[in-house]
Every structure is written in C-alpha cells, then in structure tokens.
Amino acid sequence: MWEFYNATGDAHPMHIHEVVFEVVDRQAILVDEDARTVMVEPGSSPTPAEPWESGFKDMVIAYPGQVTRVKMNFAQPGQFVWHCHIVEHEDNEMMRPYRIGPPQPGEPS
Ligand SMILES: [Cu+2]
Question: Ligand 1 centroid to 60 CA: how many Å?
C-alpha cells in the first residue's frame, strides 16, 4: 500500500512505472507548514475510490489536501520510477526512483 500525501494546492496525476495498482481510498489531511508536518485529519474517514477508478490502473489523481491510497503487488525486480504526469512538476523533482529486490551493481549507495 502506498500513500500519496498531497500538501500542495494542485491535483497531481501520479504514475508508477512497471506495476498496475488499485485505488483504495482518499482521506483528508492536516498540513502544518510551520512545523513542516502532515498527518491524516483526526476524526476524518476514508472515502472509497470513485466508481470510474475500479480495476487496475497505472495512474491516479492525488487531490490537494488528501492522502490517496493505492495497493499493488510488485513482481518485477529492478529499478523504476514514479512521477507526476505534469511535465513541469516531473522536471522539478516529482520524478523519484524506487527499487524492487536487492541492490544492483552500479547503483548509488
Ligand atoms: Cu504534479
């Protein structure tokens, strides 16, 4: 289960390479910019995925002020990326690596 905490003012279409996933739910979050923390809003309840989000996906929209949860099984070992599909975001650090399995030769430590 991955959780995308969106503490920005924009919706982000998040894409995870090499895997398909199911959208589980979304829930309100609280952002404390002074303390630089984010947490699930106490007393809030998760909202199920929308009807059009049923089935396996490779992209999900992470809305502002919410955590978006997705679940998946990683079967393919290797090094991949996950990123926002908005190019300006992707080019400004919203493309991140992830690895399945043991470290690989030449991988940065
Ligand atoms: Cu984005």
Answer: 11
Separation of CA 105 and ligand 1 centre (Å): 31
Distance of CA 86 from the midpoint of ligand 1 (Å): 5
Instruction: Show me where the domains of the chain are located.
Output: 2-76
Question: For the segment 4-60, what is each residue's pLDDT rounded down to a tens digit?
Answer: 999 999 999 999 999 999 999 999 999 999 999 999 999 999 999 999 999 999 999
Fold (CATH) for 2-76: Immunoglobulin-like (2.60.40)
DSSP secondary structure of 65-98: TEEEEEEE---S-EEEEEEESSHHHHTTT-EEEE
